[in-house]
Design brief:
The protein has about 700 residues and is of the alpha/beta class. The chain contains 23 helices and 30 strands. A seven-stranded mixed sheet has the order 9-8-11-10-12-13-14, sandwiched between helices. Strands 20, 25, 26, 27, 28, 29 and 30 form a seven-stranded antiparallel sheet that branches. Strands 2-1-5-6-7 form a five-stranded parallel sheet, sandwiched between helices. The longest helix is centred in the middle third of the chain and has 19 residues.
Length: about 700
C-alpha cells in the first residue's frame, strides 16, 4: 500500500492520537487544545505516560494501549523520540501521522539526514502517510478538525481555498490575511520537509476534493520534478493552482561552459513549469491571497480584453501606469459603445478612452446610469472583463453603496466577469469585508496586486481554452559519446546534432594548413577557421578563431596563427585540428540552448545569440518536448523578437525554419535527458525568409555519470 492510499486518513481522519499531549503550554498541549477546540467530532486520544487524564480526556501511556487504532497519530515530541513512536504506530497499523519536530533533513546534517531516511523507510514499509517532519500540522475548516500547531484566526471562515505550505510560519500570514479579507479556507496543510507525503500528493488529492475550488501553494522546492509536472498539468485542467515560489533568486543549476548556463537556472525552470501547466505564479503573500480570492469568485473570461470604469481622471492614469507591469489588454472602445456611453452620461464633446473616466461621480450615480453603462460594456462583444474602480471606504457612503448595488445586479445577469477594484489598500476591513462572499462579485483591494490577479485569471482562462494534446518527441539519432565527461568539440557536437535534421554550416576538419586550403576551396571562400579542442571550449578567448579568410594564403596563415595562439594559451591542450567553415553573412544570430535542471530535466532556451546573449540576456524558456506553437510563443516573448519580422526595413527572417529547428532540438534533448549537462547552438544563423537556418557553432557538455554511452 502506498502512502497516497492513506491520505484520506491523514486529511479526513475519524480519530486522532496526540503523542506528547499535556496540560501544559507545550507543543503537545497546544496541538491537543487545537484538536479539541476545532469541534472535531471523532475520537481524540491523548498519549503520555505521565498523565492519566488531560483536558478532560483519558490519557494513555502508549499507542499500544489505545482502545482502537486511530486514523492519525500526531507526534509532538523531541526529535530523539520521534522514530520510536512512528515505529510503534506503524506496527500497530496506524495509517497516517504528523511529525512536528525539527532536526531531520531541515538541519542539513548527516545525523538529520539519517533520521529522515529512517522515517521514510518506516513509513514506506507500512504504507503510512506522514506529514512533515518540521511542520505545523494539518487543519480543515470545512471538515472540522485542526491537527495542528498553528492557530487558526477565529474569524477565518470555511471556504473553497486550500493551502499547502512547505513553510510552517507562512501559513499564519496567509490565514491572517485571508481572515481579514474574508476569503474562506478549506484545508491548511503545513507540509514541512515532505519526507513521505510531498506537494504533488497533496495537490493530486485536492484536485478530487469537492470542497476545494482553488489550490494555493507556498513552495520551496520539489522532490520529484517529473511527478509534480504531471500532477500540475492534470490538476490545472480542472481547477486553478496559485503558487508562491520561494527562493526565486537562487542561481540554481549552472552549466560552467555554455552561455545558456549563465541565463537558465532554477527560477527559469519553475517559470517554464508554471507556464506549461497553467499555474498562476505570484510574488508575495498578498498576491497569493488576492489571486486565490479572485479565482474563488470570478467566472473564467472568454478572452483577455479588459475595460476599466472609473470616476476620476487620476484613476485612469494610475491604472494605465500600473498596467505597464500587469500587461492586461485594454482595447479602445468601439464607436458604437462610445456613442452609447456619451448618450447615457450626457457627454458629447469627447470620446471615451480605456480606462474610462466618467467625468466625476454625479453623472454615474444619477438614476440608473451605472447600470446602463455596465450593461453596455458587458454587452460589447469586443470586451471580455469589466472592472469598476472605486475608492472603497471602510464605512460605505450611501452614494457608493448605490453604485455597488447596481454593479451586483448587473453581475448577476452577466455572462462575463465583473469585478470591483479598490483604489485604496487595507480598505476591506470594514463594510466591504464580506462583499465578495455575500454577493459573488470579486472585490480587489489594491491596484497593483489586483491588476496582477486579473492578469493571472486571464492567463489561466487562456490555458483552459487551449487544446494542447500531448506530443511524443521524434526518435533520437544513434551516436556514441567520447570517453569521460566534459565539453565536446564543435565538430563532435555538430556531428551529433546534424543527425536530428538540424541544418549545419558546410565545413570539414583540417589537420594541416594544406588540408585547410583544399577544404576552403571546396566549401567556398571566404571561410571561418576554428580550433577544435575539448580543452578549449571558448575558442575566441584563446585566439583560436579567424573569420573571413578570403584567399588560399589567408587560410594558410590563419591556420598557423590559430594553432600557435592556442598552444601558447593552453600548452597542454589536445588539438584535434582546425574546422574550416563557410561564412554565413546574411543571418540573424539566435541562440538555442539547453541546461539540465536537477528536478525537471532538460530546460530549453531561445534568445538573441552571438555576442548579444550575455549583453541583453533576452531569452525565453520552456520544458520540452515542444511544438511549433510553443516555439512561436517563445519568440514572441523576446524583446528583440521584432528583428525576426524585419524591423525598420530589414529582411523578414525564416521563422518557420527556426521553429522547426527548435522543435527538433527539443526532441533531441528530451530523448537524451540526463546524458548532457548543457547543449548549445550559438549562433543559429536565421537567414532571410525561405532560405532556412544554419547552425554556425555548437557545444555539447557531457554529464559526468554518462561516460561512454551507447544508444540513447
Amino acid at each position: 500500500m502506498s502512502a497516497n492510499a492513506n491520505l484520506q486518513a491523514l486529511l479526513r481522519p475519524r480519530s486522532v492520537a496526540v503523542v506528547g499531549a499535556s496540560p501544559k503550554g507545550s507543543t503537545g498541549g497546544r496541538i491537543l487544545g487545537n484538536v479539541l477546540g476545532s469541534g472535531f467530532e471523532g475520537a481524540v486520544y491523548p498519549v503520555n505516560p505521565n498523565y492519566t487524564e488531560v483536558r478532560g480526556k483519558p490519557c494513555f501511556p502508549s499507542i499500544d494501549g489505545l482502545p482502537e487504532v486511530p486514523d492519525c497519530v500526531i507526534v509532538a515530541l523531541p526529535v530523539s523520540r520521534v522514530l520510536a513512536v512512528i515505529k510503534e504506530a506503524a506496527d500497530a497499523g496506524v495509517p497516517s501521522g504528523i511529525v512536528v519536530a525539527e532536526g531531520f533533513a531541515d538541519g542539513d546534517t548527516a545525523a538529520g539526514r539519517r533520521r529522515q531516511e529512517e522515517l521514510q523507510r518506516l513509513a514506506d514499509a507500512a504504507g503510512m502517510a506522514v506529514t512533515g517532519p518540521c511542520c505545523m500540522g494539518v487543519a480543515s475548516l470545512r471538515y472540522g478538525f485542526a491537527n495542528s500547531y498553528f492557530s487558526i484566526p477565529p474569524d477565518l471562515t470555511p471556504g473553497g481555498v486550500s493551502l499547502i505550505s512547505q513553510s510552517g510560519g507562512l501559513t499564519n500570514a496567509v490565514t491572517e490575511l485571508a481572515a481579514s479579507r474574508n476569503i474562506g479556507c478549506n484545508y491548511i496543510i503545513s507540509s514541512g520537509n515532505e519526507a513521505v507525503v510531498e506537494m504533488a500528493d497533496y495537490i493530486e488529492y485536492l484536485a478530487d476534493d469537492p470542497e476545494t475550488r482553488v489550490i494555493a501553494c507556498i513552495m520551496e522546492g520539489a522532490k520529484d520534478g517529473a511527478r509534480l509536472r504531471r500532477v500540475l498539468a492534470s490538476t490545472g485542467r480542472r481547477k486553478p493552482v496559485v503558487v508562491l515560489k520561494l527562493g526565486r533568486t537562487d542561481a540554481g543549476q549552472r552549466a560552467t561552459v555554455a552561455h545558456t548556463g549563465t541565463l537558465a537556472g532554477q527560477r527559469e525552470a519553475y517559470e517554464a513549469l508554471f507556464r506549461e501547466t497553467g499555474v498562476a505564479p505570484v510574488e508575495s503573500i498578498d498576491e497569493l491571497v488576492e489571486t486565490a480570492g479572485l479565482f474563488l469568485h470570478a467566472p473564467l473570461p472568454a478572452g483577455g480584453r479588459v475595460v476599466f470604469l472609473t470616476i476620476s481622471g487620476g484613476a485612469t492614469a494610475l491604472i494605465s501606469d500600473v498596467n505597464a507591469a500587469a500587461g492586461l489588454r485594454c482595447p479602445e472602445l468601439s464607436a458604437a459603445t462610445n456613442a452609447r456611453l456619451g448618450e447615457i452620461l450626457g457627454v458629447d464633446d469627447r470620446p471615451f478612452s480605456n480606462p474610462i473616466d466618467t467625468v466625476g461621480m454625479p453623472r454615474i450615480e444619477q438614476g440608473t446610469n451605472l447600470t446602463s453603462v455596465l450593461d453596455t460594456l458587458l454587452g460589447d462583444d469586443g470586451i471580455d472583463l469589466v472592472g469598476m474602480a472605486l475608492s472603497v471606504k471602510r464605512a460605505t457612503a450611501p452614494g457608493q453603496q448605490k453604485l455597488l448595488d447596481q454593479a451586483v445586479a448587473c453581475a448577476r445577469n452577466a455572462s462575463k466577469p465583473l469585478f470591483v477594484l479598490s483604489l485604496a489598500s487595507n480598505s476591506l476591513t470594514g463594510d466591504c469585508r464580506t462583499f465578495s462572499a455575500d454577493t459573488g462579485v470579486p472585490i480587489l483591494e489594491d491596484v497593483a496586486g489586483g491588476m496582477k490577479a486579473v492578469r493571472r485569471l486571464v492567463d489561466y482562462a487562456a490555458f483552459r481554452r487551449r487544446e494542447k494534446p500531448s506530443r511524443t518527441p521524434e526518435a533520437s539519432v544513434d551516436f556514441r559519446l567520447p570517453e569521460g565527461a566534459g565539453a565536446l568539440t564543435e565538430h563532435e557536437s555538430k556531428r551529433i546534432l546534424a543527425g536530428t535534421g538540424i541544418p549545419m554550416t558546410r565545413e570539414e576538419l583540417a589537420g594541416t594548413p594544406e588540408q585547410a586550403v583544399e577544404i576552403a576551396g571546396s566549401v567556398g571562400l571566404p571561410v571561418a577557421l576554428k580550433v577544435q579542442s575539448p580543452d578549449v571550449p571558448h575558442k575566441s578567448d584563446a585566439g583560436g578563431v579567424a573569420l573571413g579568410a578570403a584567399t588560399a594564403e589567408e587560410v594558410e596563415t590563419a591556420y598557423l596563427r590559430i594553432v600557435r595562439n592556442v598552444k601558447a594559451a593552453h600548452p597542454h591542450a589536445r588539438i584535434d585540428g582546425v574546422l574550416v567553415q563557410e561564412m554565413v553573412s546574411d543571418g540573424l544570430e539566435v541562440i538555442v540552448g539547453m541546461v539540465h535542471d536537477a528536478q525537471f530535466g532538460p530546460l530549453v532556451m531561445v534568445g538573441l545569440g552571438g555576442i548579444y546573449v550575455e549583453v541583453f540576456k533576452d531569452a525565453a524558456f520552456r520544458l520540452p518536448p515542444l511544438d511549433g506553437e510553443d516555439v512561436r510563443e517563445m519568440l514572441a516573448e523576446l524583446r528583440g523578437g521584432a528583428l525576426l519580422s524585419g524591423l525598420r526595413g530589414g529582411k523578414p527572417r525564416d521563422v518557420d525554419a527556426l521553429v522547426d529547428c527548435v522543435v527538433r532540438f527539443g526532441d533531441f534533448v528530451t530523448r537524451n535527458a540526463g546524458r548532457f549537462t548543457a547543449v548549445e547552438m550559438n549562433p543559429v544563423m536565421v537567414r532571410p525568409e525561405g532560405l532556412g537556418v544554419a547552425v554556425a557553432d555548437a557545444l555539447i557538455t557531457v554529464a559526468a555519470e554518462t561516460g561512454q554511452a551507447g544508444r540513447p
